[in-house]
Specification:
The complex is a heterodimer of chains A (299) and B (244). Chain A is 77% helix and 0% strand. Chain A contains 15 helices and no strands. In chain A, helix 2 runs antiparallel to helix 11, helix 3 runs antiparallel to helix 12 and helix 5 runs antiparallel to helix 11. The longest helix of chain A has 26 residues. Helices cover 34% and strands 22% of the residues of chain B. In chain B, a hairpin with a 7-residue loop joins strand 1 and strand 2. In chain B, helix 2 packs across helix 4, helix 2 packs parallel to helix 5 and helix 4 crosses helix 5. Classes of the chains: A mainly alpha (299), B alpha/beta (244). Chains A and B meet through helix 9 and helix 10 of A and strand 6, helix 2, helix 3 and helix 5 of B.
Chain lengths: 299, 244
């Protein structure tokens, strides 16, 4: 039993993978909170797909995939920001156009390579067991920058996510703040690609904060819980994938999903179970939103 | 430099969403302490005008100034109380968190609101009858209390201009009194208060001036003189029963 716990971590590649996935988990858990609260899940998905040609190009050139992904992530974050600003195209269509075409471009590029199916697989689904020491270091350094910027602008991001109108009225550069947030999301996706892959990265960004939101009504606690769930799912998923001999990235995502389902059922205030109990006891759900309020004028 | 209260001067203002103009060539002047009611039919542009003055919409033409200074340069002291429907009540913030947002601009970039800001927020909550409730999540309050949280947020901004978007929707009599008092306090401090509302009873009670908006500024002036059957009919196109 004890051996089973220890066994995976005897290998250096597993230790590196653990370190990498914990850093990635912390990042996804933090940045993901604002993706969820600002309603950027769709844009996040678009970003993840749009960096794909950059990944392919650096992979083909034999360079770290971080470089290409970073350049494309930057371009896409800016592109999405500016396209959404123009009134000619609706934001959703603008994003749909960018992400589908960039992703297709990436697939076209890599399909010219010999043996592209195997390569495509590791790029799409990640290969956390293959990260090098340099990869871990790069993830850590970029992650550090992301965390510092996020906390430096924490109150501004919170205000814009909660009440864009007030943020604009009070003179905050809402558009610039949104672009910076998109860049942070983009950076998080870029450093997470190697471990979780292109297709699944959004799950690690959205699922932990969604689970954390069910557990608490406070932003600070939500961020802490989200980080714990993301990093914990990373470590637990990696461990499970070793013993079950399954793909690491996908196992990690399923572990996070399991956390979400547990929160959905058992969360103290927002969970299905506690809601059902409160309904049975005849209580109004404390956190249920009544559109007109209980002291509203009867119409 | 600490900007002091001044008159709000709107000149030649044209504005709207997208490519459609909702309002053309609006001009009016409100003195410090004025409470201006923006009234008009739905789609007439009262909300558009309010949001343009708030800086949410950029005007196509014209200027908005306070005491001769472009209002955008005084944005830190422009308070906006949103319509209830536009607030995300599921957001993980407490009443105190929301009120503290009114101190973010004065706290400045890279700084968290400090002890003094928190004291300010507590006082504002207490003044609006929410003492001791600051730790509760915003969705756990009644409709009138929720509106008061946002009034408290406006209060801690020490505003020069207060913009209220349909503030009386879903508010009972007791809460109305709190609202009237808050609006009087804002006016007494020298702020210019503007509120867009379809509640014509409230307009008569609370405002010193009214701006009748229907695609253009139909009429503007002191409430007592402007509140006439002719003007109201011109504004609402005969769709309102007038018992003036």
């Amino acid at each position: 039993m004890f051996d089973a716990l220890i066994d995976p971590w005897r290998y250096e590649f597993m230790q590196r993978a653990l370190l990498e996935i914990v850093i990635v988990g912390v990042l996804c858990g933090l940045v993901g909170c604002f993706v969820v609260l600002r309603g950027l899940a769709f844009i996040g998905d678009a970003l993840a797909h749009a960096v794909f040609p950059g990944v392919v190009l650096s992979y083909m050139a034999g360079k770290s995939i971080l470089i290409g992904a970073f350049v494309f992530g930057l371009l896409t974050a800016l592109g999405v920001g500016f396209l959404s600003r123009s009134r000619r195209v609706s934001e959703d269509s603008a994003i749909g156009v960018i992400f589908a075409s960039f992703f297709a471009l990436g697939v076209v590029l890599i399909s010219r390579e010999a043996g592209f199916r195997r390569d495509l697989g590791s790029l799409l689904f990640g290969n956390v067991l293959g990260v090098s020491n340099q990869d871990v270091l790069a993830t850590f350094l970029i992650g550090l920058v992301i965390v510092v910027v996020l906390f430096a602008l924490l109150k501004e991001f919170t205000l814009v996510a909660f009440d864009t109108t007030m943020a604009r009225a009070a003179g905050y550069p809402v558009f610039a703040l949104d672009v910076v947030l998109l860049l942070l999301v983009s950076g998080t996706i870029v450093v997470s690609l190697q471990s979780v892959g292109n297709i699944l990265i959004l799950a690690l960004i959205v699922t932990p904060p969604a689970a954390a939101r069910l557990l608490t009504d406070r932003l600070g606690r939500m961020m802490a819980a989200s980080v714990a769930i993301a990093a914990g799912s990373g470590a637990a998923g990696l461990f499970l994938s070793y013993h079950l001999d399954t793909a690491a990235g996908a196992t990690i995502v399923l572990t996070a999903t399991a956390c979400f389902l547990v929160a959905l059922v058992f969360a103290p205030n927002h969970g299905l179970l506690s809601s059902a109990i409160q309904r049975r006891r005849g209580y109004h759900h404390v956190h249920h939103y009544h559109p007109m309020g209980e002291d509203a004028d009867p119409h | 430099m600490d900007p002091s209260p001044g008159a709000l001067q709107v000149t030649g203002l044209s504005t709207g969403y997208g490519t459609t103009f909702h309002l053309a060539n609006v001009a009016f002047r409100a003195e410090p302490g004025d409470v201006v009611g923006l009234i008009g039919p739905n789609g007439g542009g009262k909300s558009t005008l309010l949001k343009t003055i708030a800086g949410v919409l950029t005007p196509r033409a014209g200027t908005i100034e306070l005491g001769g200074v472009p209002l955008r340069r005084l944005a830190a002291r422009v308070a906006f109380v949103p319509q209830r429907e536009e607030v995300n009540w599921d957001f993980p913030v407490t009443a105190r968190d929301v009120v503290l947002m009114g101190r973010y601009r004065s706290a400045g970039w890279l700084r968290r609101p400090g002890r003094a800001d928190r004291d300010h927020a507590e006082q504002a909550l207490a003044r609006l009858g929410l003492a001791g409730l600051g730790h509760r999540h915003i969705s756990s309050f009644s409709g009138g209390q929720q509106q008061r949280i946002f009034l408290a947020r406006a209060l801690v901004q020490d505003p020069l201009v207060v913009l209220l978007d349909e503030p009386f929707t879903g508010i009972d009599a007791a809460n109305r009194e709190v609202f009237h008092e808050a609006i009087r306090d804002f006016a007494a401090s020298g702020a210019v208060v503007l509120m867009a509302t379809h509640d014509l009873d409230e307009v008569q009670v609370t405002t010193s001036k009214i701006a009748c908006v229907s695609g253009r500024l139909v009429a503007y002036g002191p409430t007592a003189e402007t509140w006439t059957p002719e003007i109201l009919r011109a504004t609402f196109g005969g769709r309102v029963a007038v018992f003036a």
